[in-house]
Amino acid sequence: MQALQFERTGDLDALRLVELADPVPAADEVLVEVRAAGLNPSDVKNVLGRFPYTTLPRVPGRDFAGVVVEGPQALLGQAVWGTGKDLGFFRDGSHASLLTLPAKGVALMPKSLGFAQAASCGVPFSTAWDALERSGVKAGTRLLVIGAGAVGSAALALAKALGAQPLAGVRRAEQASALQAQGFASLLLDTPEALAGQVEAVFPGGAEVIFDTTGFWLPAAVNALASFGRIAIIAAPMDGQVQLPALALYRRGGSLVGINSLLYDSVACARMLTQFGQWFDDGRLPLPEGLNQVPLSAGPQCYREVNAGSSDKIVLIP
């Protein structure tokens, strides 16, 4: 099979397109013919050596959509999708034409999604779902999502599907206009000191949940929080340090929730995808758009583009 593979870390030049023997599934596994595989920043960081538990040589890639060609009879021929912390780190991942993983690590693909659309959802939607669940977002929750990248956009869509009151906080006017065209209330972020007043103008009493997807707004978010509110975070500054206004946080009865998608293996992620996947079919979630579909052979160059800061949602097609 064709695959992207790296035998050392620290340099994207280590990633090459290679021919490998077809993988053979174990008794409790499936063999998936990969039709599309998402490319995430964590895949790039993996090749660069940011994850010390990665074993080498390794095929990277977490997100996939494809067809089961070997495995339990009930899954044979079924279109499936998935993601997980095991893929691409300590077992070969999805940036290949074939993939093995536990049979319980795949979920049936929503019928309304194409393979590329499904492959674009894994990490962003499972991360957003985890953030909303663990911070207690439900119908009516006043939610501020800071940042409108892949995870932020997924969080807004899922929150709307849950019946919450999502508000997007973005830096650029064109982002705010685009979100408003999609039916999302938005505010144009000013200075950190101004955030509490901006949120108060929309949510009197503050936001019950603030999900910061950028890593830069945690201190400011505390003062924009309602009593007993929760702040979910998925990122931090490069040095990992934040000066937290602890007095303001505890006086509000506030809580911090750390969100890390690499805590969940493919089996846990398949359960998440099953929970919200039907919402694509019933119209509660919008279908992914604007995907950049490229052949697997162009993968090494795509890794460089993501590392250089490209915001394109790239899907590799074996």
From TrEMBL:
Keywords: NADP
InterPro entries to which the protein is assigned, alphabetical: ADH-like_C (IPR013149), ADH-like_N (IPR013154), ER (IPR020843), GroES-like_sf (IPR011032), NAD(P)-bd_dom_sf (IPR036291), Zinc-ADH_QOR/CCCR (IPR051603)
Transmembrane spans: none
Gene3D superfamilies assigned to the protein according to its UniProt record, in alphabetical order: Medium-chain alcohol dehydrogenases, catalytic domain, NAD(P)-binding Rossmann-like Domain
Residues in Enoyl reductase (ER) domain copies: 10-316
Domain of life: Bacteria
Matches recorded under SUPFAM superfamilies: GroES-like (SSF50129), NAD(P)-binding Rossmann-fold domains (SSF51735)
UniProt cross-references to Pfam families, sorted A to Z: ADH_N, ADH_zinc_N
Protein's UniProt keywords contain Magnesium: no
GO molecular function: oxidoreductase activity
Full protein name: NADPH:quinone reductase
